[in-house]
TrEMBL record:
Originating organism: Saccharopolyspora kobensis
Annotated region described as Disordered, given as residue ranges: 243-263
Pfam families per record: BTAD, NB-ARC, TPR_12
InterPro entries: BTAD (IPR005158), NB-ARC (IPR002182), P-loop_NTPase (IPR027417), TPR-like_helical_dom_sf (IPR011990), TPR_rpt (IPR019734), WH-like_DNA-bd_sf (IPR036388)
Protein name, per record: DNA-binding transcriptional activator of the SARP family
GO molecular function: ADP binding; DNA binding
Domain Bacterial transcriptional activator: 102-246
PANTHER family: HTH-TYPE TRANSCRIPTIONAL REGULATOR RV0890C-RELATED, REGULATOR-RELATED
Keywords: DNA-binding
Highest taxon of source: Bacteria
Keyword flag DNA-binding: yes
Gene3D superfamilies: P-loop containing nucleotide triphosphate hydrolases (3.40.50.300), Tetratricopeptide repeat domain (1.25.40.10), Winged helix-like DNA-binding domain superfamily/Winged helix DNA-binding domain (1.10.10.10)
Length: 950
């Protein structure tokens, strides 16, 4: 029932959850009531309105007053956002309103529906309709009007409601509720002594309770009164009924004085419960808590296909009957399975059928809706709408189901219901691996006890999806002779798991469930899902998805939102998305032309190359990235704001970069492969991800070797040698560097040879062979002298200065270092200049010139901070802290030591961070803070333990 206006009393408007009968002055309320009384859209002249308002036949002299009242009524409706509107045209006035929104017209409509139900023998349905309709009469109708016309209408309406009461008692007689009829006649209808209909109802009720001897005395008394008042005999129908009932004998036994009302019917219209239900106790408890707090409202339950939404709801609903609700109705909306999604009419029909009402007995869709509302209000009812396609489908049904408890399930995020309808959202997550493990133990019995490791592997394969667990358990049960270990190995191929379980029923597979989700997508969404199946990783971002699709990022973002809503893709954060293994494998099997797949992968490879190129330039601003000639592309790569955001992105996307790199090699894009690996490996390694760095370089070396790209191969081997040196594998490092040097030499790439010599010398330094290192550096210096490469020359001079300082030859070291600084200043290389200043500070520290060492280290730090060179800044800050401590400047030592700790932490340089903590702890001890110093030492020790140094 959706009544917005009441005229059966003072003319009232619905405002929120209640009615306001003081919304305007009396005449304004009377005017609206006069407009509402007529049939929908009935037009009244000014004279007719005047007769309603003032009892006059003409509006002459009152038109200004009438127009003012109409204007005020319009304003009052508009201010209260009423859907009705008063209209006028050529001196006629009417109101546009749904008739069922007015209590009087709703009453008449319900009365017609009730009589139709009686004609078909549905007396209980008719009785319910009549009780609600009669209950609307709670005051003097149109009480704001006192005109003669209003009085005549009230007399007529009194007869209408009396007729409704008579019809109601006819229903009671048909249902054998005779005592109720007599109570009604002796109660509120006791004054209506002359109405023949009431006389006939009383005699029928007396017959029904077995009081046949009272029928004739009642009739004789009624006849005498009727004659006295009217001067005529009662209608023949009354006399004939008296004769028929008094001569006959009651075929029904008398009923007890106190009639026991019929028990409420318990309706448990639910699908069968799953035989094995595991986990979900937190969700069951949450549903129970919600209903305990509020027995009405809307709960939206969503989750991926196969996650067990329906099973959960059926389990809870079955437990809830009798505790929190009286009955449960269940309708499958067929949003994604079972054919065409159900419309409102089909939902109403299904619910009426469950409540015992044949929908085709009620010809009007509006009256079906009214009848359903009435039935739902009789008991606490939970309505489960399963498998909703979207919020719009559910919102249609909510027009009927408001006021009860509605629980909706969908594989799509029903954000619209949450935002617009205030639904409580509950997402069904994957089961934990422990829950799946326990479930499989229960299903597999002794076999699980014999092969616990295999059960663990099978649990991991299921990925927390109950449908997968059931399919796998059934499959294992049908292969009792197969070992679980063998089965676990077989199911590592996700394609096998997707199709498992389809021997008996093709729809009972994970693939079939995902097919229904796929069919619900629009063509552009289907295309993106297919391309995501070609994506080499499981995590991606909007930029890489846009490159894959070859569409603008804004468009792809909207498409991804749809896939997220259907739980085909998970959103990790504002930019990142994750594909479930089974969904990824399913999408990979969807047909896509080879040319389209190849073009998509090429765009993705372009995106990765240029994104890594941009990252390299931010992290290593003074170094040349890998060559990108011939790699122009229309794909928009990612750009980076600063060092921190770049490092954070590379850390988060390292697995994606490894996967894309491997895929480019596999699909013959070797040039992309070695560029990605050589550009990304060092950024990844700086953050402690040595394994991923090694994977990137290994793939790069293999790709370049397969392609026969000598420059790419030599560069990759050079970087692999540097990587091996950092890990301490000096033999393998030298092997890679020597091969790289030979290739560079054969191709005439002297600067490549120069880089290899630098790295070979660094190996000797790390191995303690300073003389050998010095010889190699000097060979490198001769190679670039006079070649117009001041950057490389300056770098070699600085490295020679470092080796000389380590040998104690500080005068020679200072000369080489100053030469390097002079060159760096000339070519405006702030990073190289800063590194050389640090070396110079170290030399002065060896000389014992603390002030000069301190000053040069400060200059280096300031320069590094100016160009956001975190690596150089960390080294300079640590050096300043050590120099300050040696000089007794403990406050400075503490300040710069803490700065070095933070910078090394950002760089993920654990060794540097531990050394900086040592200085901080020593400075704290020297300033009288032993407790804080102990904490600093403990932190340094913890880091070194993690590094394996202790």
């Amino acid at each position: 029932m959706n009544i917005l206006f009441k005229i059966l009393g003072a003319t009232s408007l619905r405002v929120g959850d209640g009615f306001d009968d003081h919304w305007a002055k009396r005449q304004e309320r009377g005017l609206l009531g006069a407009l509402l009384v007529g049939s929908p859209g009935q037009r009244l002249s000014a004279d007719e309105l005047a007769s309603w308002l003032w009892g006059t036949d003409s509006a002459a002299g009152r038109l200004p007053n009438l127009r003012s009242l109409i204007s005020k009524v319009k304003t009052g409706l508009r201010n209260r956002r009423s859907p009705a509107e008063v209209r006028s045209e050529q001196g006629m006035y009417w109101i546009d309103v749904d008739p069922d929104a007015v209590d009087y017209h709703y009453f008449r409509s319900s009365l017609r529906t009730a009589k139709s139900a009686m004609d078909e023998g549905a007396h209980q349905d008719a009785l319910t309709l009549l009780d609600e309709a009669i209950g609307l009469w709670r005051g003097t109708p149109l009480s704001d009007l006192s005109s003669a016309r209003a009085d005549r209408w009230r007399l007529h309406s009194a007869q209408v409601v009396l007729s409704a009461r008579c019809t109601r008692m006819e229903c009671l007689l048909a249902l054998e509720h005779y005592e109720d009829v007599l109570d009604e006649l002796d109660g509120r209808l006791a004054q209506e002594v002359m109405d023949p209909r009431l006389a006939m109802l009383r005699m029928s009720a007396l017959h029904g309770v077995g009081r046949v001897g009272d029928i004739t005395p009642f009739y004789l008394a009624y006849r005498k009164n009727f004659l006295d008042v009217t001067g005529a005999e009662p209608p023949d129908a009354v006399r004939r009924l008296e004769q028929e009932l008094s001569r006959g004998r009651s075929s029904r036994p008398p009923v007890a004085e106190t009639d026991v009302p019929p028990a409420k019917s318990v309706i448990r219209n639910l699908p069968p419960q799953a035989w094995g239900f595991h986990g979900r106790q937190d969700l069951l408890a949450e549903l129970t808590r919600l209903v305990a707090e509020r027995s009405t409202g809307l709960v939206a339950v969503d989750g991926p296909a196969g996650i067990g939404k329906t099973t959960l709801v059926v389990q809870w609903a079955d437990q809830a009957i009798g505790r929190v609700v009286d009955r449960v109705l269940f309708v499958e909306l067929q949003g994604y399975t079972g054919g065409q999604p159900l419309g409102l009419g089909e939902v109403v029909g299904a619910l009426l059928t469950q409540l015992g009402v044949a929908p085709d007995r009620i010809p009007s869709a509006t009256q079906r809706t009214i009848r359903l509302r009435q039935l739902l209000e009789q008991q606490r009812t939970l309505v489960v709408l399963d498998d909703a396609r979207d919020s719009a489908q559910v919102r249609e049904a909510l027009k009927v189901l408001s006021g009860g408890l509605v629980l909706v399930t969908s594989r799509k995020h029903l954000d619209g219901l949450v935002v617009r309808n205030g639904a409580y959202h509950l997402e069904v997550p994957a089961l934990t691996e422990a829950e799946v493990f326990q479930w499989l133990h229960t299903e597999l019995g002794p076999r699980a006890l014999a092969e616990p490791l295999a059960v663990q592997q099978l649990a991991a394969v299921c990925a927390g999806i109950p449908l997968a667990v059931r399919i796998l358990a059934q499959h294992a049960a049908s292969r009792a002779s197969q070992s679980l270990t063998s089965l676990a190995e077989e199911l590592q191929d996700k394609r096998v798991l997707l199709k498992l379980g389809g021997a008996d029923d093709e729809e009972a597979t994970i693939e079939a469930v995902l097919n229904s989700s796929y069919r619900a997508l629009e063509p552009p969404q289907q295309r993106l899902l297919r391309l995501l199946g070609r994506y080499p990783g499981r995590d991606l971002e909007i930029g890489s998805a846009a490159a894959l699709a070859g569409r603008p990022a804004e468009e792809v973002s909207r498409t991804l939102d749809v896939l997220v809503a259907l739980h085909l893709v998970d959103r990790v954060d504002g930019e990142r998305y994750h594909l479930h293994d089974l969904v990824h494998e399913y999408a990979a099997q969807l047909p896509e032309p080879d040319a389209a797949s190849a073009a998509a992968l090429r765009r993705l490879a372009d995106w990765a190359v240029w994104t890594v190129y941009n990252a390299f330039r931010v992290v290593f601003p003074s170094r040349d990235p890998f060559p990108v000639e011939g790699f122009e592309t229309d794909v928009l790569p990612r750009s980076f704001r600063n060092y921190d955001s770049t490092m954070r992105w590379c850390a988060q996307r390292r697995h994606e970069l490894v996967a894309v790199s491997a895929a480019t090699r596999e699909h013959g894009l070797s040039g992309h492969c070695w560029r990605i690996g050589n550009g990304a490996w060092e950024i990844v390694r700086l953050q402690g991800f040595d394994s991923e760095a090694g994977d990137l370089l290994t793939t790069a070396v293999d790709a370049a070797r397969e392609e026969g790209d000598l420059v790419g191969l030599a560069g990759s081997l050079n970087n692999m040698g540097l990587y091996r040196m950092v890990l301490g594998d000096l033999a393998e490092a030298r092997k890679c560097l020597n091969e790289a040097s030979q290739i560079f030499n054969s191709t005439g790439e002297l600067f490549g040879v120069h880089s290899c010599l630098h790295n070979l010398a660094a190996c000797e330094v790390k191995d303690g062979n300073l003389s050998a290192a010095l010889d190699i550096y000097r060979s490198a210096l001769r190679m670039v002298t006079g070649e117009g490469e001041p950057f490389r020359k300056a770098g070699t001079l600085r490295r020679i200065a470092e080796v000389l300082r380590r040998q104690g030859r500080n005068d020679e070291a200072m000369a080489h270092c100053r030469d390097a600084i002079w060159i760096y200043e000339g070519i405006d290389d702030p990073k190289g200049h800063g590194d050389a200043l640090v070396e110079l500070a170290l030399i002065y520290r060896e000389f014992g010139d603390v002030e000069s060492a301190y000053a040069y280290a400060r200059r280096s730090l300031e320069g590094a901070e100016a160009v956001f060179d975190v690596d150089s800044a960390a080294t300079a800050a640590g050096l300043i802290a050590g120099i300050a401590f040696d000089a007794g400047r403990y406050d400075d030592a503490l300040r710069y030591g803490k700065q070095a700790v933070a910078l090394f932490h950002r760089l993920r340089d654990a060794s540097g961070e531990a050394d900086a903590w040592d200085v901080v702890a020593a400075a704290l001890e020297s300033t009288g803070r032993p407790d804080a110093a102990a904490e600093g030492r403990a932190r340094a020790k913890e880091i070194r333990i993690n590094l394996g140094f202790i």
